[in-house]
Amino acid sequence: MPTAFPPDSVGLVTPQVLHFAEPLALACGRSLADYQLIYETYGELNAARSNAVLICHALSGHHHAAGYHSPDDRKPGWWDSCIGPGKPIDTNKFFVVSLNNLGGCNGSTGPSSLNPATGKPFGADFPVMTVEDWVHSQARLADVLGIAQWAAVVGGSLGGMQAMQWTISYPERIRHCLAIASAPKLSAQNIAFNEVARQAILTDPEFHGGHFQEQGVIPKRGLMLARMVGHITYLSDDAMGEKFGRGLKSEKLNYDFHSVEFQVESYLRYQGEEFSGRFDANTYLLMTKALDYFDPAAANDGDLAKTLAKASADFCVISFTTDWRFSPLRSREIVDALSAARKNVCYLEIDAPQGHDAFLMPIPRYLQAFSSYMNRIAV
């Protein structure tokens, strides 16, 4: 537990909440009459309001991307390795905004929020969200903060999809897009993994059609299984082999189906247990569906280059060699489309054994490249 924060930390941060009373029309045909967004900021907005960077989170992410909420916090924010003084997103140069998306379960309006029409949690009645919906809500947040144009919108995985959508929905409001470990749309295999995770939740007896909060329970088993499936896909075979191998928890096998015998089994159960205690099941369903639905090229008969033709931002695309969930091939699809659309794009493929989770880790070559690009755009 830190008694003094590291010199490259943003230190103590306090989340802020903004309430929006203007209805937000959604892609599903419904609307939110009013809602709130929770966010954090790091660094200072300059006089020209030209140094703002938006951080878009991945599936299970949230607004707490850097620093500490309390001196007693055991861990900093989820992307603390990349945000702070002297780090790739240097808070001595940039004003950084990180939010929890609509539909989340960490302070923004979502399925666990009270539905004003019923006085009960929304649960399954919360509308389905898309990446485009999130970007529209983020644009409203930028309006309130007085940010007419982002110096950069940055995200990994699902966050990278949001960064790309910004260049399409609001091309004049973003100068640079950094899409890391991302894809222009999910493959059939990725959609299949998401469906298995959703079915684990939907078939949990404690799910109660999405209204489990009213019953005073949570679909813990379903959430645990969903997280275990997901976590397997976030790591590479090499990473899992190096971390666990076939190591046993005890000296001998028990020869039954219920014991936790291998270290990797123990790890997955721990991850599932921890996740089920902090994440909302309906939010998990919502976030995975947003991933599945993202396909901006569909508006132009699958022509991604034509879709990206309206973009005016410069792009930085980064992938990792052992990421099989969002493989380098998918990043190169983005790069090829941008090149065909005659956009400025730089691409870096990082040799890293950690798999998809590599974008969250302080890999030296990755941080160096990330820093180099951000230093080019500092104003």
Automatic annotation (TrEMBL):
One of its GO terms (biological process) is methionine biosynthetic process. Pfam families: Abhydrolase_1. Substrate binds at residues 227, 357. GO terms for molecular function: homoserine O-acetyltransferase activity; homoserine O-succinyltransferase activity. InterPro entries: AB_hydrolase_1, AB_hydrolase_fold, HAT_MetX-like. Pathway: Amino-acid biosynthesis; L-methionine biosynthesis via de novo pathway; O-succinyl-L-homoserine from L-homoserine: step 1/1. Its EC number is 2.3.1.46. SUPFAM superfamilies: alpha/beta-Hydrolases. The active site is at residues 157, 323, 356. The record marks 325 as: Important for acyl-CoA specificity. It catalyses: L-homoserine + succinyl-CoA = O-succinyl-L-homoserine + CoA. It is found in: Cytoplasm. It is an enzyme of class 2 (transferase). Keywords: Acyltransferase, Amino-acid biosynthesis, Cytoplasm, Methionine biosynthesis, Transferase. Gene3D superfamilies: 1.10.1740.110, alpha/beta hydrolase. The keyword Nucleus does not apply. GO terms for cellular component: cytoplasm. Residues 51-331 form the AB hydrolase-1 domain. Belongs to the AB hydrolase superfamily. MetX family. PANTHER family: HOMOSERINE O-ACETYLTRANSFERASE (PTHR32268:SF11). Transfers a succinyl group from succinyl-CoA to L-homoserine, forming succinyl-L-homoserine. Homodimer. This is Homoserine O-succinyltransferase. It comes from Pseudomonas taeanensis MS-3. The gene is metX.
